[in-house]
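Reviewers of the previous submission asked for a worked example of the structure-prediction workflow described in the proposal, so we include one complete record here. The input consisted solely of the amino acid sequence. No template or homolog information was supplied to the procedure at any stage.
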Amino acid sequence: MANLKQGDRSALIAALVRDTVHAMSLTRIRRLILLAPAVLLACSQSSVPRAVRGVVGGPEVRWQESDFADRPPILHPIVPTTDLATAVTVIGQPQGVEALRGDTLLDLARQHGLGINEVEAAYPAVDAWTPAPGTQLELPTWWVLPDGPPRGIVVNLAEMRLYYFASDSWVLTFPVGLGREGWETPTGRFKIIEKTENPKWVIPAGVRAEHRKDGRPDRDVPGGDPENPLGRYRMRLSEPLYSIHGTNMPWAVGRRTSHGCIRLYPEDIEQLFPRVALGTPVALVHQPVKVGARGGVIYVEVHRTTYHRRFDYRGAARRLLRARGWLGRVDSALLARAIAEHTGVPTPISKTADQGSKA
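From that input alone, the workflow returned the following structure tokens.
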């Protein structure tokens, strides 16, 4: 790697960027992602550290695509009420894991039903590609429910997460990827109007023009093709330019890289697709602040806004708390700290007398 000529180095970097962005095969993406640190080091140093060489060589890679296929969905019980004593609007539990040699945060996130954005927000100082072996992480596998009726599908753009309310007592939740800037995923209320297995990707006119401008292929992609960005399942919204679908690039989940559609991990869309009926309502919302309760304790969950939207965090939190009759039960200092830190993790904000356990 260190002996590459400058032209070869430039070509390798260009191939890395092009192939990753343009959704190459899953195996190649994994190799390219793990190769990236070494490529950058090779451009600036005379030798590549042994640890990086180990990752590049391949034996250190612990995860294969098949490792994620059998991750079961978790159906969470909920009690959506404003009665603080009985409300259950915080779901899941944090999970402790130890990073091993060959792990990436992307693998650990996916294995535990998270988007990479959720882990990076909780651990901004940990290297996503090569976390130090032995690093102890408490993965944020718990969430406050979004505000609104527990009905159908709700996608909170701010946290890049989908909630499917199987009933008013049970919910499934999955991480998602969203549209990039210039192709923003919209907010609004829609319905599922079409469900397709192995959908053909008919490239929209705007995307086709972009591909031609960038010198990329602009052909439609048949269903089942490994280069098809829709994956194996698609659920089209009543705004037909937008869909909820799988992906051939799982590492885009927890990122804003699509042309506006909502991407799920292949294993997650496979679980969601058969459960969702035609006509199911879909709410795409932007809620950087959520409040909920469990075990008599009030929690707030705070995320950064999407697409550089301006947002009044304190005002939103107070409105939500006031609407539930909980404002007087909250420690204002704890609320202010949670807003300032915006870790994306449920944080208890009850006054001392109300504090309890996470369970």
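The longest strand covers residues 188-197. We consider this example representative of the routine output the project will generate in years two and three.
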